[in-house]
Design goal:
single chain, alpha/beta, 6-stranded mixed β-sheet, 18 helices, 22 strands, disordered C terminus
Length: 507
């Protein structure tokens, strides 16, 4: 019997013009959490798709419980005990939570009719793993937040009771509390002998949950190590092949906070948020933190005119503004970078240059025709300035890595020359190297006098980049902290309404 429940030997996967995997070895023990780390494009997702039966290796071998296997399909891999939670959600929006979790596996009676009571009870038991009692099994997935959709995706994979569960960026939309619930369940399942392959760009998570790591770079195996024997510097250096001193960067010398440019007074929207008041100054980065469903994104979208406010006032440069649409917001100098870049931020099947001008198309038209030379010049400059890795500006955005897609989206919003830029989960699904670049770009924009609202579920990001932090709880502002006084502990306490320190002492 093998010491490893899952093992790969010399896996090679070649796509046209790209050697995505170059002789990768991987060894997963029974009942362990094994992290796979590397930059975007390192081969992590390709390896997972190969293990999940979606890709067939061009060379190399896969062993499951000591026996050589060749998966004919994803369904074949699933039947043999390998389940995947993909980075991109695979749920059906118009089906219910229950129908998504147990798709094609619903309990039926002798007439092949679905036993809804039994199905809903099974679903409630799965939801209880995350201590979720505010989502009904009958709720349509399209009516859930991105974070709760992520939870449903995880529960769907867990419902197959796999031998190996692959989690590809499972916490990208989860707050600290949801993440801790996931980790708690992972530890319980570990004790039952289930193995996990864990992929995350949040390096602190690796040290919280993983037992061992394998590092990939440019499709090749770099090294393997016990997590207890390494630190974050070791991870970063081996991932990127160079040393990064401080991924969050520092405010530029001479960068001063200017006058107030945005004031929000008592804005409310039914069942989303109420009596929200705050201000933003020129050159200031204000972080918005809170639990999923707290109303952070809804506040940002309301300021941008994407969702209506029912009461309250918004002032820009001291003047009261009635922002009825995103188009009006953009014209006033307010930009909003969505947390969901593929559904709301980018036109995935369009070129880089088309995406870079999509939010200001009228600026590049004359008598109904596009000014192609101007577009090409501006797009080429943006690709260079934002260090987008691409063969050219005609490349489809969908062919870029997550980090490069995010940089294109950021460049598009920088292009409107905003006074206020709202960035919602700006580094979601982005590797450490690209994160460092994005933080530098945001700091440079702030240094030019732009006010930035940064909505993020990543507490280290909030703490590392913000000048000031506003915490939202249940649609209201629970508190505000200057960066120098903020800690993960007091932010979580404000966000949850629980004294985290006192609770820890009672355990």
């Amino acid at each position: 019997m093998s010491d490893f429940i899952l093992e790969t030997r010399g896996i090679v996967k070649i796509f046209p013009g790209v050697r995505a995997l170059d002789g990768v070895d991987l060894k997963i023990k029974k009942g362990e959490v094994h992290a796979i780390v590397g930059e975007n494009g390192a081969g992590k997702s390709t390896l997972m798709l190969t293990l999940g039966g979606i890709h067939r290796p061009d060379e190399g071998e896969i062993y499951l419980e000591g026996e050589k296997v060749l998966f004919s399909s994803a369904q074949d891999a699933l039947k043999k005990g390998i389940s995947i939670v993909h980075q991109e959600l695979s749920l059906v929006p118009n089906l219910s939570v229950a129908e998504n979790i147990y798709a094609n596996r619903q309990p039926v009676n002798r007439l092949s009719l679905i036993k809804k009571d039994e199905l809903y009870q099974m679903t409630r038991e799965m939801l209880s793993l995350f201590e979720i009692d505010n989502i009904l099994p009958s709720t349509l997935v399209k009516d859930l937040s991105i974070a709760n959709q992520q939870v449903v995706e995880i529960l769907k994979a867990m419902s197959f009771h796999p031998k190996v569960l692959i989690l590809d960026e499972p916490t990208s939309s989860l707050t600290e509390i949801e993440k801790e619930r996931l980790f708690k369940n992972m530890r319980v399942l570990k004790e039952k002998g289930i193995s996990f392959i864990y992929i995350s760009h949040h390096l602190q998570e690796i040290f919280q949950i993983a037992d061992r790591i394998t590092i990939l770079r440019d499709g090749a195996y770099i090294c393997e190590a016990d997590v207890a024997d390494i630190d974050e510097d070791f991870l970063i250096t081996n991932m990127v092949g160079r040393k990064i001193e401080n991924i969050y960067g520092r405010r530029q010398s001479g960068h001063k906070i200017g006058k107030e440019i945005l004031e929000v007074k008592n804005i409310s929207r039914s069942r989303c948020f109420k009596n929200i008041s705050f201000s933003i100054k020129a050159g200031e980065i204000v972080g918005f933190s809170g639990l999923v469903g707290a109303g952070r994104t809804e506040i940002g979208r309301a300021i941008f005119g994407a969702e209506p406010i029912q009461s309250g006032e918004i002032y820009l440069d001291g003047k009261k503004r009635n922002i009825k649409s995103p188009e009006e917001a953009i014209a006033m100098g307010i930009g909003y970078m969505s947390e969901d870049r593929k559904q709301e931020g980018l036109y995935i099947d369009f070129s880089i240059k088309a995406n870079l001008i999509a939010n200001r198309l009228r600026s590049f038209t004359s008598k109904g025709f596009l000014k192609e030379k101007n577009i090409d010049s501006i797009a080429a400059d943006a690709v260079k300035a934002f260090n987008v890795a691409t063969p050219g500006i005609e490349q489809k955005v969908g062919n870029l890595s997550g980090g490069n897609q995010q940089k294109v989206l950021l460049a598009a919003w920088f292009g409107i020359k905003p006074k206020i830029l709202i960035v919602d989960e700006p580094t979601r699904g982005v590797d450490v190297g690209a994160k460092s670049e994005i933080y530098t770009l945001l700091r440079n924009l702030a240094a030019s006098g732009v006010g930035i609202i940064m909505i993020s579920s990543d507490l280290p990001e909030i703490l590392g980049v913000s000048d000031r932090i506003i915490v939202v709880r249940q649609g209201e502002i629970a508190g505000e902290l200057p960066a120098e006084q903020a800690t993960e502990e007091n932010i979580i306490s404000m966000a949850s309404g629980v004294d985290v320190k006192a609770e820890a002492q009672t355990r």
